[in-house]
Amino acid sequence: MNPVAISAYTVTSALGLGLEATLAALREMRSGLAPVKFLDLPLPTWVGEVAGVDAAHLPAPLANFDCRNNRLAWLGLQQDGFLEAVAAARARWGADRVGVFLGTSTSGLLQTELAYRRREADGSLPADFLYGPTQNTYSVAAFAAQALDLQGPSWVVSTACSSSAKVFGTAARLMQLGLIDAAVVGGVDSLCLTTLYGFNSLELLSDEICRPWDGARKGLSIGEAAAFALLERESTHPQGWLLGVGESNDGYHMSTPHPEGAGAIAAMRAALASAGLQPGDIDYINLHGTATPSNDAAEDNAVRQVFGTATPASSTKGATGHTLGAAGGVEAAISLLALQHGLMPAGLNVQDRDPALQLDYLLSNREGPVKRVLSNSFGFGGSNASLVFGSAA
Amino acid sequence: MSTNHKGLQVWIQGVGLLGPGLATWAASQAVLRGEQLHASTATVLPPPARLPAAERRRAGSAVKLAMAVADEAVAAAQVDAGTLATVFTSSSGECSNCHSLCEALATPAPVVSPTRFTNSVHNASSGAWHIAVGSRASSTSLCAFNGSFGAGLIEAAASVCLDGQPILLVASDSPYPEPLNSARPLPDHFGAALLLSPARTAQSIASLTVHLAGDGPQAAPMADASLDALRRVIPAAAALPLLVALAQGRAQQGLVLDYLPGTSLRLDLEPVGAS
């Protein structure tokens, strides 16, 4: 594919609001995870909650969109001059030539879960519940398009935890075909009961802080995040480049990855081919790395088959938690920070490395020139996406 | 909106259809051609024959619906489903699992079913299909609320044009149980599938060119009022004007399908011979 300029990006997660807070936390090897306080849930787990989401207020004309997910989206859009960058792109290309493609898995589902707790005596939902602008999977992209005053094509990709990686592919395709000149991509997913109780029921939720690549890893810690990137046909000051996109499916199981990582291998090879690069051209791999025993083992095997064991790699989910549908967007932002600052972030919370996993998994931060990064995102339903990013220089 | 792109040109190789009074694409021809009035009898979802027995019992209505139309389109196109990339688009996903989970989560000590949770993801139908046919090709699952069919058609046609490989597009919507049905009323199940390919083959039904059009007209009401009612209330049924044109086998320039408020799709359709 033709490289696509990334003219602005931002991320808001449990590490903080915006790029500066995120970079500082990564440099200090600080995790944003903490024992769950969200809704006083009696679950023995850690989560990556974003501070200040409940207090965020949507602008009055967008009040119908009010729910935790869109509040988090609004908080995220206001960081790092992102609103101004989009306004400039809108002025340059026209509102109808800028698309909005976001990934989410649960969108505003929490709003519905809470409404079910307030059902009337006859079983009906409370009158203030608004399905379209809050619960529907599309609501976050509808909200963002309206908040950013964009009128290009728009939709949500919802392929579980690969969602917000795949939107980079969607935007790149439509730009290459001339349907749009720019796009806002990324993902937003917020804490809700379905994912916390659901992963708990699958016994995939760790009762301690998640420990990707640790021999005693027990599963994931769930986080929430909003991450956005502005892709443009041309940019005077690109922050980085999207060089390649690879997408595949496992065709194997709804919630377990193919044990040898067959689908993951296909996605990584497709991403390299799309970028016109060889495995040796990649300086750092941001792993999907959820810290479930089977996911990490399958990914270690898959990455090894494509790259060998010499490429530095880490999962940043020990810092942010697994932000599900937003994970691809969050890790795209971390990949761009790695490129801009020459920082390959450590995988946190490892006490005893799993000796069966063979990658060069970073246990402390490594600094040095980073020209190209590959970021993996894999999801339920066997959906896989790998992205290759390049530095602006 | 400007339309300074050439349009996305693809070939339609096979169609699947299932909705109220529309049992299959093949069985719906007389109604779609206007030779017979549409009678809105409740959609009957066939058991998903492709799934192993255990999975078949677990499959919710969204999976059954998507599989039924996907199977019909793939069979008509005579392609190998095991190598096929897909785009699944739905406004609503797996509604019955969403409802059950919300009910369970509203109790004082929630216990949720792991199977329901796993199959509550928006891409459950895509996952089930790719497992059933063993395809590792890419799959995207989308949602654009009432514009979900238009979004899926753009994504699928764009991928065909760029990758030069066929794609199966599956658009489907199932109603929620109460109380969500009152907040989001969909009268019945509706699914449509199109097998799109980059080049004409012996199975090709028509050439289709998709343009994005803003500030243009909305889709025109259809001649059959009952079909038109479906088009207006079920997002996947936004495909109906295209399906009618395909069934009628007439060349059409500028057929409008609704997408987002303020943005529609303009389709040029050129059928292959008489159908």
From TrEMBL, chain A:
<dbReference type="InterPro" id="IPR014030">
    <property type="entry name" value="Ketoacyl_synth_N"/>
</dbReference>
<comment type="similarity">
    <text>Belongs to the thiolase-like superfamily. Beta-ketoacyl-ACP synthases family.</text>
</comment>
<dbReference type="InterPro" id="IPR014031">
    <property type="entry name" value="Ketoacyl_synth_C"/>
</dbReference>
<dbReference type="Pfam" id="PF00109">
    <property type="entry name" value="ketoacyl-synt"/>
</dbReference>
<feature type="domain" description="Ketosynthase family 3 (KS3)">
    <location>
        <begin position="1"/>
        <end position="391"/>
    </location>
</feature>
<dbReference type="InterPro" id="IPR000794">
    <property type="entry name" value="Beta-ketoacyl_synthase"/>
</dbReference>
<dbReference type="Pfam" id="PF02801">
    <property type="entry name" value="Ketoacyl-synt_C"/>
</dbReference>
<dbReference type="InterPro" id="IPR020841">
    <property type="entry name" value="PKS_Beta-ketoAc_synthase_dom"/>
</dbReference>
<keyword id="KW-0808">Transferase</keyword>
<protein>
    <submittedName>
        <fullName>Beta-ketoacyl-[acyl-carrier-protein] synthase family protein</fullName>
    </submittedName>
</protein>
<dbReference type="InterPro" id="IPR018201">
    <property type="entry name" value="Ketoacyl_synth_AS"/>
</dbReference>
<dbReference type="InterPro" id="IPR016039">
    <property type="entry name" value="Thiolase-like"/>
</dbReference>
From TrEMBL, chain B:
<dbReference type="InterPro" id="IPR016039">
    <property type="entry name" value="Thiolase-like"/>
</dbReference>
<dbReference type="Pfam" id="PF13723">
    <property type="entry name" value="Ketoacyl-synt_2"/>
</dbReference>
<feature type="domain" description="Beta-ketoacyl synthase-like N-terminal">
    <location>
        <begin position="42"/>
        <end position="207"/>
    </location>
</feature>
<protein>
    <submittedName>
        <fullName>Beta-ketoacyl synthase chain length factor</fullName>
    </submittedName>
</protein>
<dbReference type="InterPro" id="IPR014030">
    <property type="entry name" value="Ketoacyl_synth_N"/>
</dbReference>
